[in-house]
Design a protein that fits this description.
The protein is an all-alpha fold and about 375 residues long. The protein has a domain at about 35-255 and about 295-305 and about 340-360. Helices cover about 60% and strands about 5% of the residues. It has 14 helices and four strands. The chain has helices at about 15-30, 40-60, 65-95, 100-110, 120-130, 165-170, 175-190, 205-230, 235-255, 280-285, 295-300, 305-310, 320-335, 345-360; strands at about 5-10, 275, 290, 340. The strands form two sheets. A two-stranded parallel ribbon has the order 1-2. A two-stranded parallel ribbon has the order 3-4. The radius of gyration is 21 Å and the shape is globular. About 40% of the residues are buried.
Length: about 375
Amino acid sequence: MSLKKVSFNNQNRAEFMQELRSQVKDYFDKNNISKYGNANLVIKTIFMLILYFAPYVMMLTGVIQSIPGMFICWIIMGVAMAGVGMVVMHDANHGSFSKNSKTNNFLAKTLYLLGGFPTTWREQHNSLHHGFTNINGYDEDISPISILRFNPHRPLKKIHRFQYIYAWFFYGIMTLSWATTKDFRQLANYKKRNVALSSRLNYNFLLYDLIVSKALYFIVFLVIPLLLIPVSWSWIVLFFVVMHFVCGIILGAVFQVAHVMPTTAFPVPDEEGNIEHNWAIHQLKTTSDYSPKSRVFSWLIGGLNFQVEHHLFPNISHVHYRKISQYVKRTAHKYKLPYHVQPNFVKAVYNHIKMLKSLGNQPG
């Protein structure tokens, strides 16, 4: 059964996005640059992939043999895994890494390196999260398991009062969930709802692809280390979990502080499924930037601190978000629209924790 249709009032102050698109287009035209990735993105891609695989190879070849050394290696792999997701996979699955669609399709498969599945991820992220940001029942990024309440319109439970503490554990096991059960559950759910995930592949082939990709992932990152690294199997399993936990904490923090915040809205469609504002204004109301002045931090997390810009222009590579943020901010202020931004990541995390605490105590 498909979801009820939700419609935005695209005639409501449509001039905002029209003017903003014109300004952003002029920026690219006048500077004669492409909206896709550049040499900077290529360097970041190489850096993150080397950072991911170098510790792995050093352990397999015996360069690193001590338990503490291996522990550090798996932590580095967890950091790099998150980096591959934010820097490479994210742009590629949005089609913004390269103007060459084959390059995007190939690099989109780096999600396999996180234990994920590109087909279901695109539906959850590109279609549902970007299409219906912060709308309960549609945006799966804020509709996790019932023990977490990320939306004021979800049922409130007594245990939610402690979610500001235990939510971080669930962030930590996020990619471990991808690698094990989540993709299977999502694929079955999308099939039940008759979601067209691919124009070429049917659900049986997608299930086959999913099973094979999971098997290969566990062979590479768990079975081979178990066979070749000369330590107890329990250490390898622990290190594998630690790698995922580090990656999950990073990804959870980076993405959730952009939407589950005291300043962001959680709109509710009316009985006919209509949203009051147009899609662009909806993105401004439901999304927040953070750390706009930190170039190094932004470089490492794939520009995802500029979430407002990303949501308004998901088909533009993140390497351009810093530049176009000035146009977004200026145009939003001109039309007296919200432009949410936190001064730094620490402040953003602090306010996210406050929001989790509020959602855990206040009914919708």
